[in-house]
Fold:
Amino acid sequence: MSHVYFEAMISFEEQGDKTNVTLRSIFPTAQERDFVIGKYGAVEGAQQTLARLNEFVQHQQKKDSNKLELTLPSELEARFSRLFDAPREMVWKAWTDKEHLQNWMTGPEGWTMEVLENDLRPGGNWKYVWRKTNSTEMGMHGVHREIIAPSKLVSTENWGGPYPQTVNHLVLTEENGKTRMTLTIIYPTKEARETALKTGMDDGMTVSFDRLNKLAASLR
Structure:
């Protein structure tokens, strides 16, 4: 028996938040069916293929859920959202503790945080200064307005130069043992927001938040 032709059918059925996949092969005769099963290990092959599909889908789901998302709720706002693989308390600790903050909030490769001042209380001042390997420096500072540990932090932010002050609302919510971060930045004008977004700020955030994700998970 050199060639066997059969009809293949695949169906997808939702079961809650999962999907049941059914593969069905229809052969002209039972003999041809048994030949394919015995000769080529069709059953084992199908099981291995579906197992790889499951691993791929789970990896893709995790990759997508951890992706930094940007939305524009109003003309003055830029909202960033991301899921972290750690409890809220650990994400809060990594975000507010000086010991941990300087290990992840460094943006693209080649930058280090040289100055870190953070008086974590309502009315307290904060200041960060970064230095690149070529000695270029940049810094920002502000004042904490509202602190509700471990879920909310509202602060002003000043970069100086052409960039006006913003008000940043950080909210951390629990999602099945993980943490959803929502960072809403409020600008004084739409033009100021568009200018800031054109700097590629989301790229630097993505790199830093990847570091934060690893750090927070290690603090369990």
